[in-house]
Amino acid sequence: MPSFTFYIDLHCHPNYKAFAKAHTENGKAPGPQGSSAADKSSLWYYDPPSVTDKLANYFLSITKFRQNNFTAAFYGRLFVMAIGLGSVEKYFMKNKLGGGLISDLADDFVSEFGKPRINAIQGMKDYWTDFKREMRYMEEMEDMPVKIDGHWYTYNLPAGFEELQQNTAANELPDAGAKKDSPLIISVIPAVEGMHILNCGLDKPCNPEEVKTNARALKKMPNAPWFVTFSHHFYNELCGHARSLRKQIGKLTNQEEGINSGFTPLGKEVLDILLSKTGGRRILIDVKHMSAIARRDFYDMRRKKYKSEIPIIMSHGVANGLPTYGATVSNYPGLGNTFINPKEDVLGGDGEYKDHSLINFFDDELIEMVKSEGIIGLQLDERRIANDETIGKVKHSVFRNKIMHYRSELLWKQVQYIAELLDDNGLYAWGNMAIGSDYDGLVDPLNAFWSAEEYDDLAGFLERHAYNYFKDHPDRMKQPFNKLSADTV
After folding, report:
1. How much is the pLDDT for 98?
2. Of the candidates 480, 488, 364, which has an alpha carbon nearest to the alpha carbon of residue 421?
């Protein structure tokens, strides 16, 4: 039997909307996960985009459908995914519209979380308890088989790489999916997006001892995360964050406290706890959402304190086209200039003009990630992978295959840029890039690649771009080991 072909997503949120729908009463703890795939609180709930949904996304950049659920995942052969657990921060929902009916309606229109969950987030006083409830929600239906389209499926939270390998091997058995007691397995790697879950970044200054106690408890959980982002959208008293919200949502929210700052003393203590090889699972660090300054702090600590033994993980990001922090001109302007966002003519909380390129990654960071034997997860948010001018120039068509060709090229240009950068530095170009879609993280997906269901299509169109690249530019790659066939890439 040929090997079972599947895809991996380093960062997605099938949990966000489903967990939100488990909240049915204001102020109450969430109910259990729905046991039926027809239940909106089920991780299996299938919600493909309607024509109206696609138009809303195209014209308003609003996602009114579930980009990632386990049913869409198996349709797209996405059988390994790292999910970003953890509350949406309260200041995302508690914004300049206030906390009343108008704010609730606007937040629900964007997120589709429902009023009970939105009110719970707005009034959040204990992120840690909320996180434990979300973890319990994930565990409730683990290993429970469901029948969809005549086949049996389940999901499992592997405790480590050996168990992950066992899951993928089980999917290769001849009768996998045919019977209830031998379902196909979606492996769900627990991760966390934002260390605010430790109970910091709330309305009042955190209790440092409580935060460190929660960090130690996190390591000892039965399904402790494999890696965590240290920051998210708002200041968490541990390290600075990068500006991540733009346009209307950026105007409604205030990210300025702590923006573009470095690590705090408490942040360094928490980092030591997570990276310690004692006291439970060693939890690795995902540098997405850290400020550029905090990232440089982390790289420096990694080299000096942790003896460069830690792989650098970027679960969902892209290149920003600039060589290093502080640079304003790309070394590769042909592609780099299509990524760089011009600064706003508005001062931010750091006293600098608001810069939306700092959430993306500089050339020297990408090189260091590869040298660290880390991984580069490329996200599928149109607002990140190219600047507004470039997006505006993408060709249009009424034919789906042409739309897919034009839109997938935006992602291919990121792949090409990073590959050429690595090749120029004598490194293997194709071994460290992956997909970290951020689907259902309230992102604006590449048009026509609406959900995980289209991963087969995405792979096919990327191969087409790779084929054209090697055909049209046979000498662009300088290193012989980087001159591969398109299907191998």
Report:
1. 66
2. 364
